[in-house]
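Backbone shape codes:
===
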Amino acid sequence: MRVSLVGFLILSLTGSLFAIPDRDARGERVENFVALQSKIKVSLTKRNFTEGERIPLQYSIQNTGKEVVRIFPAGDFRYSFQIIIKDEDDRLVAPQEDPEFHDPILKRRTTVVNLVGDENKEIILHRNESFSKIIYLDEYYSFLPGKKYFITGYFYPNYTEDKDSFLRSENTSSFLLEKSNIERNFTPLAQNLGETGFVTPEETIFLFLGSEMKKNWESHFKWIDFSEYILNYDRFSTVYAESHASDRDAIVEEFKRYLTESPSGKLKYFKVLSVDYPSKNDARVQVYVERMIGRFKTRYEYGYSLKKDEGNRVGYWQIKNLLVKVKK
């Protein structure tokens, strides 16, 4: 009798385990069709990019079957939408940054709250629906001009809870990185200055930043009005303003040495965005700038204020002020 009772209990427990199918966070039945009926594709907007240009990669997941597909991208997309990049020599390109992944022990939730800050978002894809993510490769990788690169995607449907399951993209996308033409452009400009007899504010900034890229500091400094420009730097402004006139030349020389050290990082790319004239003797030039500090790239928007040179160089402009905004 005791044996029969034990057997009955085992059968009852076993039956109860399989009587109710697995449920998702909403209490609905879960059948994972991601691997069976999903296609992963990576694509670029064009085949050739210029050094310093944005490189957007579109990373798409499409449901090609009849059943609903559910995916759970991690809060940091880099863990769900992983990519492998190789150059034309089949060498792996490492990312600029490998952030530490905070992997807490997640409790199985009874509800899905699709709010900003949630660890995971649930995305439901019906038949023929797709979900795409744009990844700017230039933000996470450093590429060398003159080389061709190949990108393959590895998608993790639920990386936070299952780091072993992934889908490889059905294709490999590629692009060629071309050298920036900035250096080729400002060289003839400098040669033609003597023919025109004057330099516009836009050309002034072009020559100013171009000479920094080439580390031609003598040419770089000639576009600066140091009596005003130095006041933009807290490290030098107070001591310069409070010093005797006879001591200011030495402070300016120290300031020049400081600038040659590229404290904000190495200038990699710039583009003049706009020019306006508050008065006939004043101009403002907005410039998009990219700098590298080690392996990290930072984007800025520079606002230069210029005034006409009142000295011997009639028709020239000098930089007197600089406002810097960090772009996200």
